[in-house]
Amino acid sequence: MPRGPPSGILVVCRTSSTKPTPSSSVSPASWCAFDLAKDEAKVEELEAKSTEPGFWDDPDAARAVMQQLAATRDHVETWRGLERRSTDLAELLELAIEESDQSIAASASAELEAIESELEKLEFQLELSGEYDNRNAILAIHAGAGGTDAQDFADMLLRLYLRFAERRKFSAEVLDVTEGEEAGIKSATIEIRGPYAFGYLKSERGVHRLVRQSPFNAAATRQTSFAKVEVMPEVEDASEVEIKDDDIRIDVYRSSGAGGQNVQKNSTAVRITHIPTGIVVTCQNERSQGRNKESAMKVLESRLLEIELQKKEEEKARLKGQHVDVSFGSQIRNYVLHPYKMVKDLRTGYETSDTTAVLDGEIDAFIEAYLKSRVGEHE
């Protein structure tokens, strides 16, 4: 029997597709190894924090901690369980060899296929090990070049991500929307809450391109339009981002509406300007000025944290001596609805002709392809 892995290191055997027989040797074709000790230590830390006096004095912060605890604990238990099953399988294979028992070999073969199937589903999650991957996400959509078509495309993307969140059982809240003049939206900001929301959605940041026959053109000519998607991790601790009172300017104004009863009589919309960076954040969806201010500050904190992440990526690229696009603004995906139907990710090459499903929020395959392409890039 091979010697076990060091404490805290999880090693999962990936065998060849050949079914085991009593006469075969136990020779893994490849191995998947990573360290779970950090996650197990994180579970202990969060469990201790949840029992501290006054933990629930700040309900929002407490819920964030409990969400992180549940997600981290589930991650550890899932992979530790797979490790135990792999160890049991190795012992079962040894027994089949020693006893030359075909029935034991058949059982081992069935368990091997089950483990392989589960491992294939979980393997892409190895990329969800970034420092902020387990957090909620702030996602912003901006219409780009393309006029009314681009604003309509931005609205299509907003629906796409809301449907994605619904399918994933994530909760989504629209924090701010700026309507287009004729149709669609100029921009929108949404908060998506759920385990590893940022880890999954970080694959979506960049420029998205739509090609179709324009419904806003009498001649129905082919139109190309663009929209930009930003994805930022939600700040969990105020110490992560320092915002001085003197660095921000807060303006209040009346929320825009469609007229009639929808027009706000009071100034409830909030605009926050971060003077050092020039970042401007608005929020007008809530009827309470306080709620709008709270949401706007949350978005501002995430934007400042994203700036720090970009600086880290730039430094990492410099140390590696490689050119890495860290602008988060490069074109990532094409949505072609005419003259043929195709959605293609330009980073991974993954594509599908089922454009209706994609625009209805079924983007899991694109996300998984992106995550798998990045496995091993972290240091």
Defining key terms:
8-stranded mixed β-sheet, Alpha-Beta Plaits, 3-stranded antiparallel β-sheet, alpha+beta, Methane Monooxygenase Hydroxylase, Chain G, domain 1, 23% strand
Describe the structure.
- The protein is an alpha+beta fold.
- It has 2 domains: 9-127, Release factor (Methane Monooxygenase Hydroxylase, Chain G, domain 1), CATH 1.20.58.410; 137-374, Alpha-Beta Plaits (2-Layer Sandwich).
- 40% of the residues lie in helices and 23% in strands.
- The strands form 3 sheets. It has an 8-stranded mixed sheet, sandwiched between helices.
- α1 (37-50) packs antiparallel against α2.
- The longest helix is centred in the N-terminal third of the chain and has 41 residues, at 59-99.
Task: Describe the SSE topology.
Blueprint: E1 9-14, E2 30-35, H1 37-50, H2 59-99, H3 102-123, E3 137-143, H4 147-167, E4 171-179, E5 185-193, H5 197-201, E6 206-213, E7 222-233, E8 248-253, E9 269-274, E10 279-283, H6 289-320, E11 331-336, E12 342-345, E13 351-352, H7 355-359, H8 364-374
Helix pairs in contact: 1-2, 2-3
